[in-house]
Amino acid sequence: MATDRIAVIACGVLEWNLERLRDRLGCHDLIVRIMPGQLHNDPHRLRELLQAQIDELDHEGGLRGIAIAYGVCGRGTLRLQARRVPLVLPRVQDCIGALLGSHHRHMEQFGLFPGTRYLSQGWYDSNVAKRTSERYHTARNDSLFGPSYDDLEQRYGPDNARFIAEFRDSWKRNYTRSAYIDFEGEDPSAPARQASEALAAELGWAHACIPGDESLLAALITGDWADPRLIVVPPGHTTAAAPGEAVFGFTVGVDSHIEEILARFASAQQPEAPTRQGLGLGIDTGGTYTDAVIYDFGKGTVLAQAKAPTVHDDLVVGIRAALAGLPAEAVRKVDRVGLSTTLATNAAVEGKGRPVALFVMSAFAVDTERLPFRFVRHLSGTMTIEGTETAPVDPEEVRRYALEARDAGCEAIAVSGFGSVINPAHEALVARLAFEASGLHAVCGHELTSELNFLERASTAGMNARLVPLIEALLDAVSEALAEYGLDGVRVMVAKGDGSQLLAEVARQLPVETVLSGPAASVVGAARVFGVRDAVVADMGGTTLDVAVLRRGLPELSERGARIGDFQTSVRAMAVQTIGLGGDSEIDLSGWPAVRLGPRRIIPICRLDETEPRCAQRLPDLLRDVLSRTRHATDVVALTSHADPASDRILAQLSDGPLLLSTLAQRLNRPAADYLPWQAHEDHGRLRRYGLTLTDVLHVQGHFSAFNGALSQAVLDHWAMLLEASREEILEAILHEFRRLVVDTVLSVGLPPRSPWSNGGDLRHWLTSRMADREPAGEALLECRLRVPLVGVGAPVGALFPSLARHLGTDVILGDLSPVANAVGAIAGDVMLREIAAVRIRDDGVFVCSWRGGSDRVADLGTALDRCTAALGDILRREAAANRIAFTEPAFALARQEARTRDGALFLGVTLRAELRG
Asked: Cβ-count burial of 4 within 10 angstroms (0-12 exposed, 13-18 middle, 19+ buried)?
């Protein structure tokens, strides 16, 4: 049987146009079913009647397809099921798009004249000339629009009747123009056109005649279904909403038109690693040690390594000492220097850095107490998520807060506003006004990231402002040390938190990118040094323990961005768990038998005689006066070169030399050290503090002997006397807490994200404590087993990590290069420039594209992706020039966002990532 007949189910509004087309095109064998023109008022009933017609026509012999001459029409045409015969629908929201020829043309008119009421001859015939007594409203709408005014007054009273009547006429206030859709050959004096003009005159609207376009309806009824303005729903599938000009899709996913566009990015390749020759110098400036290596790029091997103590008051001293431990001739031959550092991470964990003010802007309330900055204010000036201003910035408010921030001691300002990724105008204006009023430089969130969470952008901008002087001091120290070897013009790269690199000049402006630089370099270094592809890498330095996952030879990246201490940032970084546990972490025994390690870093007491030899000689005598078990009782504090003793009474007490904190408290008539504000002086670099640390424990155990272990033993023995415990009991309690913290942190990265483990709590603490024990818990033996090895990186791991193999149920990989793996990773990495753009679909089908510092609005997905790829290419071209690497065609990868709806999978948009390697 031939299958070339077409059935058409059409809205009564389109009957006039379809009759014209049938006569003109000779489509007399069509099967036409006309539905009442007001069914869109009751979408549920429209769907029921359409499906009934579809099911009836499906049994008609010889049908090629069933054409549905409707738009989405209030969702009344969604969830229609094609049986044995395909369904064909125009990609329009309603009859207006069908009469104008396309959804695109309808949206063009909407963009120019949004408040337009459209009329056509077909609409007039269906709703006026052929009006019937039957109403097509939902029961809810019929109760509102059905009764006359007298009925309403009798039922609800005069006041309520008046209100309902005004509401029923409120549609008139939503329009400013009446438009008549005029088709070729129409009579200019036809009643429909006169009705449109009369409506405009009566209500004071403008009036226009718009040429109609019947080509879409013609394609629908003639079987020209390859037309992109139509969608063919195959048998067995169900209609669903689709984005933008696609309008319709079906429930196997987004229709083939969208899939074809997305397929352009399906086979994107990762950028190839550049090939290098010659020698490189890797430097890692940690909280305790500065490491340096000479790396042969061609052979992929370490030719020399050296280590020296980091001198925080003068970083160049440690860098110079580390370089002095390398062959001088090899150092002079390097043509590339890589630098990794824990300074940014440590500053965030310890709350150090310059004081920063944070200004945020949003239309909704923000809990400013949760933002960990000295001075936080919620400013006027709001935008929508699409970057449309809804309230202006108040210049006087900005100036007032900027002056208050300066008077509060802030040295910089960070600005972040809701919607500023799309439109950064408010952030830029606030930054300029604040600088003009106070002289404080401002960092704007949109300059750093294109992520949409404006509070995370705020933390990112605030941390960037806080870290600038720390990174500048480090890079100045490196430049000074390199100049001594004739390396004034050598390229210096800094490791980023995702394991890649950026040029030192760029790092000065974007120090927040170096957050997690140290642990990222350690993962890259571990992969190079030990040749492992899958492992948990634990990097333990002087201040922090950083644990991350190495998967298939690459660091596993965080979905959300780096989180350090109280900061959730938008910085692209490894998925790393960082805690304040390192060789120089303070040990608090005041809660004995409980022990607390970290999170603050102090100078090990065994190093006291390096800078305070007289105090070190007298330490045993000074300890005899300490009879309190309070926190910090045996810590020693001394002035730094930045301190002014005359400016503060605490500093004045130390002008003649270091003191125990307990002695300082007594001199100032305080019962304990915690009653004095000495920590603020430590945070701002005016005090050095010495105390018991894990480095001291290693000295007492005989695992380490670089410093004066007698001082460590003296402090530990004094605590043994205070606590009435043996030295061995105290050492075991300290190491047990160390093991518990490591087990807890390793499990945090080894278990799936958002698992119940991440909720913390007493049970988690109890479990990790039992896992760190040497003996079973009652009759149960609680064990942890990793499926991959643990790789230890950092100076203390050789002494502290071997025992972890039993408690983690896996191999622990260590080696001669473990202490300098960070420095290897610093020089072995590449520049990886990454940018993202987002494409989001508005309710009206418009595609909103956004990228760092820019945005656009377009009508279709293909144009949106073209605009985004061009914008990302421009950004990466500028970044490549800034980092002095060659620009090549970026590699693009696309992630689609979908939501499950009652119609099936709903396509919401895409995130486009661009990557350039050099």
From this structure: exposed
